[in-house]
Structure formats: structure tokens, C-alpha cells
User: What shape does this take?
Amino acid sequence: MTSKAARVHAEPAVYVYEAPVRLWHWVNALAITGYFIGSPLPSMPGEAIDNFLMGYIRFAHFAAGYVVAIGFLFRIYWAFMGNEHARQIILPPLFSAEWWKGVIHEVRWYLFLTKEPKKYIGHNPLAQLVMYVVFVWGIVFMIVTGFALYGEGTGMGSWQYELFSAWVIPLFGQSQDVHTWHHLIMWYIIVFVIIHVYVAVREDIMSRQSIISSMISGWRTFKDTRRTEGDEF
Assistant: This one.
């Protein structure tokens, strides 16, 4: 007789997200620190020399920026060195008609216009598209504009100034415009994170595969063994 524990672990499972991909995901989640720079805390009481709170926050933001930039370079490297799922949000198949058909199906699923989602081993096509357009290019924008602003402090002759500030600031017109757009895209990414969390929780409840636990363990489990048209698994 099959035990209850054996039945619980009988669902098909596939190892999808390798450790570097999962680490990159959670490091990025912890690296959103810019809100306090754009919306500083009220003045602290006492002499300025006794209070360095915003200085610490500024340092944390700069450190987080370096972490995000280095992590992104490693993530691009891993897109080519990791498994096929590691490149899905970096190099989505934008010229595949079948892939776009999957995007449309997922849009209909999220709008409650279709009864059942398809099963995907990695990211579904809509998730790939949104992660690529919103998150990947959003990070690129934040890295470029962030280092352009940082280069103003390090000054002419520094690599930050020469590689970023020298052309980014003139491109936008002036430093304050770069600040404004950097702050605006921060909110763009924050809104994305809110929607991302909602969709992940919804899919964990309503879809035919695990979502949240997959980004913790790396394993994607499936809640049924049925195959329908378009399923990857």
C-alpha cells in the first residue's frame, strides 16, 4: 500500500533553475535601495557631524549598484554557460511564431479568458517577454544611468566618468534629467516587482506547476500528468 508521503512526492519534477540563476534572482530582490535616495528621511536632530544616516544609505546604494552591475555581467555569462532555461529571459525567441502564440495564450489565461494554463518547464512565453523587456532592459538602463551619476562624483579621468558620464549626461541634456529618469525607472521596476509577486502567487495556486518554490529549490513540479496541446512537459 502506497504511503501518503510517497503520494505527495510522486509528482513529476524537472531541475530547471540552476544555483547561479536563483542567487542572481534573490540578490536583485535585495538590491533595490534607491527609494531612500530620492525620498530622503526627515532631518535628524543634533549636529550634522553626529549624524551620518544618509551617508550610510548613499554608500549602501552605491554598493548595491556595483553588486547589480557585476551580477548582471555574470548573468549574461551564465546565459551561455548554463542550461537552456538560463537564457530564456536574456535571449527570448522573438522571431518564433509558435512562441508568440504561447504569449497570446498566456495573456488570455491571465485575463481569465481561457480555462486552463499550459505547462512549461521554464518560464512561460509571456513571462519571458515581460522579464526581457521590463526587467532586463530596466536593469541595463539603471546600471548605465547610475554609473553616469556616480561618475560625476568620481570626476573626470575616472573610468565611471569616461565610460558613462561623458556621453550619458549630454545625451539626456543635463545631470538633473538623468536623475529624474533614473528615479522614474526605479518606480517602473518597483511596479514590475509588485505585479511579479502577484503573478507568482496566483500561478502557484491556479496553474499546473510550481512557481515560487522553483526559484528556491530549482525544481519545478507538476500537479498533473495530463498533456494538452502546447505543453512543454
In short: Residues 205 and 211 are 9 Å apart (CA to CA). Confidence is low (pLDDT under 50) at residues 1-9.
